């Protein structure tokens, strides 16, 4: 029986801002598709816009992907590949598939309004194709510089989409796309085609808002005599009520989620199944996320993303981590003390985020601010004076509190809460029977 097709995929963010959950969902799909087949996952920084691209955002992209465990096999930068795009543009000019146009944005806007007013779609009318050499010379003499449009073949463009199913777009309903701006900046539409062909990309997974781009790019692949990859257009994310996420993406950046204590594995596990026919479940590892990933199991309908659901998965993911899973994280944390397997076992079931574990580690070292009500001062002093001698074990708490109950008549919350507050400074937390033997100072 033949094995899975070995894929080469890419994640191609622009370094113009922070990655958010929508970006990362695309990254997860491409990463999982490549890893599931033993293929290649490429990080391609799309930085052809010199005005908006920032090195700090490129660094943030790498940092976010690394934190999530979405390792890449190699990195490419479009700013280092400009000669390839120029050569491709020359080839398109030579075959009369790339032509200069001189309309300003304002003129194009007026054309669109006029078309809409008469009930026609706002498709570029190819007026620039009728310009003579003298016309172009005159316009350039006025100081205008051309932008360059790809001449679409007005035929129906078809492809089998791995998510949306068979797709068909009439090229006559689409404007000839601009590939190069007036200032010479190469745009995504051609740069991506050149890169995908040159890098041997076998599958392109991206959002459903790129469907029209795909149609035009299929023709550009053909014009450059390149082989188009397979395409999959996943659904876009909405809020829990079906609202768009555009206004909330800042608060849903990976940096914000990391600062909020969300587990990276929970993010990947959720996004790798959200919108598919497979259940969203807590995963023990990234290998578990990859196992069974199938891009064809995703649907086309807008997909709801709920931060509350992510937090719940994150908490469950944290609870499921074994002590061996957290060793490497301890080396990178601010915790400098020796952490025992027993401490992790005692506190993990009460944690909502990793930062809380750091707090409990400090508490066991004796960094506690006791919270004692005035009415409990005398009782707490009596209790601390009656502490059993060390070493303590999991029976110590019961022995101690039973003796105090007999001496004072206190019971229930009146007995246990003041003692918890005195030993940990907290109203809630792990079972005191398990925690008490780990307290090193009182």
Task: Please specify the SSE layout and strand pairing.
Elements: E1 8-11, H1 21-36, E2 40-45, H2 55-68, E3 74-77, H3 82-94, E4 98-101, H4 105-117, H5 133-141, E5 147-150, E6 156-161, E7 165-170, E8 178-180, H6 188-198, E9 203-207, H7 211-223, E10 230-234, E11 237-238, H8 254-259, H9 264-271, H10 286-290, E12 303-304, H11 307-319, H12 323-332, H13 341-347, H14 354-364, H15 377-385, H16 396-408, H17 413-424, H18 432-435
Parallel strand pairs: 1-2, 2-3, 9-10, 11-12
Antiparallel strand pairs: 4-5, 5-8, 6-7
Helix pairs in contact: 6-7, 9-11
Characteristic key phrases:
3-stranded antiparallel beta sheet, alpha/beta, 12 strands, 442 residues, 18 helices
Name the strands of the widest sheet in spatial order. Answer: 1-2-3
For the termini, the CA-CA separation is: 65 Å
Helix share, percent: 40-55%
The tally of helices reads 18
Q: What's the number of extended β-strand segments?
A: 12
Low-confidence stretches: none
What oligomeric state is this? Answer: single chain
Characterization of this structure:
With 442 residues, the chain is of the alpha/beta class. The protein has helices at residues 21-36, 55-68, 82-94, 105-117, 133-141, 188-198, 211-223, 254-259, 264-271, 286-290, 307-319, 323-332, 341-347, 354-364, 377-385, 396-408, 413-424, 432-435, and strands at residues 8-11, 40-45, 74-77, 98-101, 147-150, 156-161, 165-170, 178-180, 203-207, 230-234, 237-238, 303-304. Helix 6 (188-198) packs across helix 7 (211-223) and helix 9 (264-271) crosses helix 11. The longest helix is centred in the N-terminal third of the chain and has 16 residues, at 21-36. The termini are far apart.
